[in-house]
Amino acid sequence: MSEINLTAAFIMGLFGSGHCIVMCGGIASSLQLAGRDKNALLLALCYNFGRLASYALAGALVASFGAAFASRNNVLALSLGALSGLFIILLGLYVMRVGATLQWFERIGKSLIWQHIVGLNRYLLPINSYPKALAYGALWGWLPCGLVYSALIWTLSAPNAAYGAALMVAFALGTFPLMLLSAQLANKVAHFINNLTVRLILGNVFIWYGVYLLIIATNKLVHYSN
């Protein structure tokens, strides 16, 4: 679907990276202290590429699931597009912090996935090597997060697993700039992004993009039904 593109996924990650600092910023900052004899930037890169790998894997799995069902039914395929638009709207409200729009989804992820793997982090501490940082990032890539889950729902409309993975890679790369900044500078940028006015602007960007996706999918559904 042309309306689901890699640039939009990158921008989604970039605009939502203030939320990433809240969720993972402490981990990223601690990497600078964990391996004092290691290059802090390389440790952070390893952590973030581990996170990217988990996002790509999840995107491929979700896209495969969506494509398998969509290939059997055109109405279902278009319905998945509408669902993607709906979740982008919910993401906009989530960014604006208007009600508990995606917290329920995070709780599901915590129950089904996160609580079963979080204990593995004890085998990776202290993070005093690059492979450990990579593995730690891959583990924390499964942290329940409404922003990531919204992007994953988006991949349901991807035509195949490879494109689903590519969408999540683009999304992850969008979060890299803020996550790779020094702790002090990242906190300043995050403070700006989390400002009420900025959150309202970014939230509206997501909402209107979700409405755009929803209108396109609904229009195609109507034409197909006729």
Number of helical regions: 9
Q: State mean pLDDT (0 to 100 scale).
A: 81
Mass-distribution shape: globular
In the predicted model, the low-confidence regions spanning at least 5 consecutive residues are none
Rounded Rg: 18 Å
The H/E string reads: HHHHHHHHH
Distance from first to last alpha carbon:
21 Å
> What number of domains?
1
Strand-residue proportion:
under 5%
For the sheet with most strands, the description reads: none
Please estimate the helix content.
over 70%
Number of extended strands: 0
Structural class by SSE content = mainly alpha
Domain Urease accessory protein UreH-like transmembrane: 8-212
Organism: Pseudoalteromonas fenneropenaei
InterPro entries: UreH-like_TM_dom
Transmembrane segments: 6-28, 40-69, 75-96, 133-156, 162-186, 198-217
Structure description:
This protein has 226 residues and is mostly helical. The protein has one domain (6-68, 94-194). It has helices at residues 6-34, 40-70, 74-96, 103-117, 130-140, 146-155, 161-180, 183-193, 196-225. Helix 2 runs antiparallel to helix 3. The model has no long low-confidence stretch (mean pLDDT 81). Residues 8-212 form the Urease accessory protein UreH-like transmembrane domain. Keywords: Membrane, Transmembrane, Transmembrane helix. InterPro entries: UreH-like_TM_dom. The chain crosses the membrane at residues 6-28, 40-69, 75-96, 133-156, 162-186, 198-217. This is Sulfite exporter TauE/SafE family protein.
